[in-house]
Amino acid sequence: MTVTSVPFPPVLDPAETDHARSSHPRPGHSGHRAPVPSSGPRLPAIQRPEGLIAPARPGDVPQPQHLHLPGWARRAHGQARPILADLVGSLTGEPRQQFSAHVAELVEGISAGKFSLAWQYPRLVDEGWALLETQRRDAEEEARRRRGLETARRRVAEQLRDAGARLTPDTASRLNRTLRSADGVDAIRGVASELDQAVAAVRSVEERRRDREIDRTRERLRRSLPRGADAEGPAETWQDALRRIAEQYSE
Fold first, then answer.
1. Within 13 Å, how many C-alpha atoms sit on residue 199's CB side?
2. Residue 108: left if φ>0, alpha if ψ -120 to 50, beta else—which one?
3. Which pTM was predicted?
4. For the chain, which residues score pLDDT lower than 70?
5. What pLDDT score was predicted for residue 251?
6. Which long-range contacts (CB under 8 A, 24 or more apart) does 98-103 make?
7. Which of 134, 143, 180, 224 reaches 20 to 30 Å from 62, CA-CA?
8. CB 57 within 8 A of CB 89
9. Under DSSP, is residue 28 helix (H, G, I), strand (E, B) or coil?
10. pLDDT for the residue 217
11. Which distant-in-sequence residues (6+ apart) come within 8 Å of 64 by Cβ?
12. The predicted structure's pLDDT at residue 3
């Protein structure tokens, strides 16, 4: 009996096997690769505060300078940079200097290789927005204070104008200068108090002058009466005498 030997299939090299598997995908499986995860950590959303208006001249926000700056850090800075520039441009005075220093400090840290500082962009936006809201409240409070100051100034100016005929030119001029230079409600109240004192002094002088005129008129009337008229009846009061003289002149 003759035995026929069947040849075995050739043994493949492991490298060739891997190549064959890669070049001939299994049935039922597509040739698409698995999705590659994005590089870098997932940063928190950097959102523009609602109500932030772009100023006419935005502030200067530097760009991080690093040879190996990660893409995620560059994207985070790109999202935050226009918001930070508008915040810096909207601030004034000391708050602007303070916020600009914090922005520059964070960018310098990223440029020095501290890429994790990019996580601080949302906090930095919140800080700038809080400073801007405080600045707006202070501006509104200052506007209300100025309106109250101008209202009080106009009221005292009207009193000065009404009392101008009774005041001496020097007194009226001095009070007007003091009123214009007054920078507070207390200073304006001081002008009003001084005006009241000046008007009261003038009124007192006018009353004393009027009393003297009345006394002189009464004395002239008494002297003009016939001798012995005092004994015939009660003496005429000065009010009746003035009324009688007014009636004579009206006739």
1. 14
2. alpha
3. 0.58
4. 1-41, 44, 225-236, 238, 246, 248-251
5. 58
6. 98/131, 99/127, 99/128, 99/131, 100/59, 100/60, 102/127, 103/61
7. 134
8. yes
9. coil
10. 83
11. 73, 74, 77, 107, 110, 111
12. 41
